[in-house]
Design brief:
By secondary structure, the chain is α+β, with helices and mostly antiparallel strands. It contains three helices and four strands, in the order ααβββαβ. A four-stranded antiparallel β-sheet has the order 1-2-3-4. α1 packs antiparallel against α2. The longest helix has 25 residues.
């Protein structure tokens, strides 16, 4: 069980790093930012398992609508939108949902 917690934490940290990289890519291009992006992407690629998948959908205003990270048999789904207490689904997605996947 501790291993599952560790894997979920690593997945969440990697998702946060990807979100940061996506943000940096939207900033004006300057050498320091480009070097930082390349460095972060290299570290992320070096630590990623071969079967890792990731996808992000961003609104026109730059807000992450939904982000999905799959590592081995675990999927983490998040949204960058602030949680709305009246909408339970959005609140749950804001916190992140972990789903164990199986091959069919």
């Amino acid at each position: 069980m501790l291993e599952d917690d560790k894997d979920s934490r690593i997945a969440a940290l990697e998702a946060a790093l990807r979100e940061s990289i996506d943000y940096l890519k939207r900033l004006p291009v300057v050498p320091a930012t480009s070097e930082l992006i390349a460095s972060l992407e290299a570290k992320l690629a070096a630590s990623a398992p071969a079967c890792a998948l990731h996808g992000t959908r961003v609104s026109a205003s730059g807000v992450v609508i939904v982000e999905v990270t799959v590592l081995d048999n675990v999927a983490v789904v998040r949204t960058g939108a602030p949680a709305n207490k009246a909408d339970r689904l959005q609140e749950v997605l804001s916190e992140g949902v972990t789903v164990a996947l199986e091959r069919s």
